[in-house]
Amino acid sequence: MNAHSLHRALGAICLLGHVAAVSAAETPRSGGSFTVGVETEPNTFNPQLNGQAKADVTLRNVWESLLARQPDGSFVPWLAERYEASPDGSRYRFTLRRDVFFSNGEKLDAHAVAENFRHTQDAGYCAGSSLCMMGARISRIETPDDATVIITLKQGYTPFLSFAAALEILAPASWHSAQLKSGGKEIAGTGPFILDSYEKGQQVTFIRNPNYRWAPATAKHQGPAYLERVTYRFLPESSVRTGALLSGQLDAIEGISGNDAGEFKENGDFTYQHALNTGTPYSLYLNVDYGPTQDRRVRQAIVQGLHIDPILQSVYRGERTRGWGITSPVEPLYDKALEGKYGNQPEAANRLLDEAGWTARDGDGFRSKNGQRLTIEVIQAQATVRDQRDVLLQAIQAQARQRLGIDFRLRYVDSGTYSAVRNSGQFGAIANSNTETDGIDIENHYRPISQGGAINYSRVNDEQINALLDKAASTLDVAQRRQDYSELQNRALIQLALAVPLYQPEDQIAAARYVHGYGFRSFKQMPENAYDVWLSDR
């Protein structure tokens, strides 16, 4: 089975329960309010600067992109009715729809779209983000007429299409607003809903855009949304979200722990769906420039010595999928060959640690050398502590001590500290995941920091990896790119031991049985906005 077929099969399996639940011969009806409990509060309501994939479930109600994606990853019209890409990925031409308006009344045209791409080149706007990393690749932005935008890059870079197609388009007036960085009502979009109110730490409410007429080809209907109002309540604790849905305080929730999934799976009062995300597995990225992990043998011991499967089973009750590679199993670029190729080899791992000189043991049983304990500080951003990741890291910490004699020190930090620690390079490992597609996630993690590796947590700069990245980025041939990334992941994970993939992030949705049309985005498989949602009698 090829990657495209695998993706379709996985999608069908994940959505079977949903299809059965909504197959009743009811006609969608307009009206009503929909309240959803969500795990993540956006750190800004400017979708270009948010940086939190989990916040997309709220932000996609207001802001839209040039192209949408089919389940197989192919691009289909949205704000752009068509596109052209040069074979070497150096030039992209987008032809826009002529009937689209922002919610503030401004018309979507080539100049409005071009201004969005120009801001990706403005360090004062996007410094330190992957947005600026992409903008730095642009050589020229042209608008030969009101409906055409042509973007020429400094050199061929095929992952740019995924970025350009997905960039959320802000209204022209946004660039002159004091709300630009924080987001707000003045930062208008073209979406099916309009931001109505925001209560920090509590909830955000959107109202229907009555003029909406340009849903993407992946949507289930056209015209305005069915719902009049949508409210997202910020409830970080999974058990709280679950309790609120079971008690009727909410209509739906996302982000369901393995312990809570059983509350909905066999319960006729609710529907339950889950689907793997695209992008990089939640992984431990090991720093090659600082502390004990500078030694390849220590990194290899960690990659080979840990036994991840029983930990996942214990923490998630079998409700999560083991991560093995550098991207998701639902992506066309995924390579199954790495599955089962490493890990659960404690004897070999301990020999590596002995060879590295960590032969002594201190009073607590940890390995030491020259009187120094084998300690690795693991940094976890507090903003991305979700899906029981704190429990998972504690279990890995315990296993590393028991199996290898390594002291994993877990450190949870706020956003400011996280940025400062990353920039300093003084950490042992960083735990994180990413949802970007088409190799962008791979580029961000393994391209040298000085060359655009926005989230190169391992701080690697390897000639072989760099050459493979360049090769993959210079062709649109998916088979060739898959081969290049296959070589890269063997180099990164087996030879250099730059990361320990843990599990592939997924999203889960549970909803009351009167909720219809709530599902996942067709490619990234994250919870979709409320555009297709409608409510029957309770």
Automatic annotation (TrEMBL):
Keywords: Signal, Transport. Residues 1-24 form the signal peptide. GO terms for molecular function: peptide transmembrane transporter activity. SUPFAM superfamilies: Periplasmic binding protein-like II. One of its GO terms (cellular component) is ATP-binding cassette (ABC) transporter complex. It comes from the Bacteria. Belongs to the bacterial solute-binding protein 5 family. This is Peptide ABC transporter.
